[in-house]
Amino acid sequence: MKAISKFDLCVIGAGSGGLSVAAGAAQMGARVVLVEKGKMGGDCLNYGCVPSKALLSAAHKANNMQDGKEFGIKQNGLDINFRSVHNHVHDVIEGIAPHDSVERFEGLGVTVIKSKAKFMDARRVRAGSKIIMPRYTVIATGSSTALPDIPGLADIDYLTNETVFDLTRAPRHIVIIGGGPLGVEMAQALRRLGSEVTILEAKRLLPKSDHELAEVVSGQLRKEGIRVVEETNIIQISQRRGGAVIHIADGKSVRDIDATHVLVATGRRPNFDDLDLDKAGVLFSENGIEVDRRLRTTNKKVFAIGDVIGGTQQTHAAGYHAGIVIRNTLFRLPAKADLSVMPRAVYTNPEIAEVGLTESEASQIYTGVRSLKWSFDDNDRARAEREIEGLVKIIVSRRGKILGAGIAGKNAGDLITPWTLAMQEELNISSMASLISAYPTRSEASKRAAGSFYSPILHGKATRRLVRFLSFFG
Question: What is the residue extent of each domain of the chain?
Answer without folding.
Answer: 4-144+269-340, 153-267, 350-458
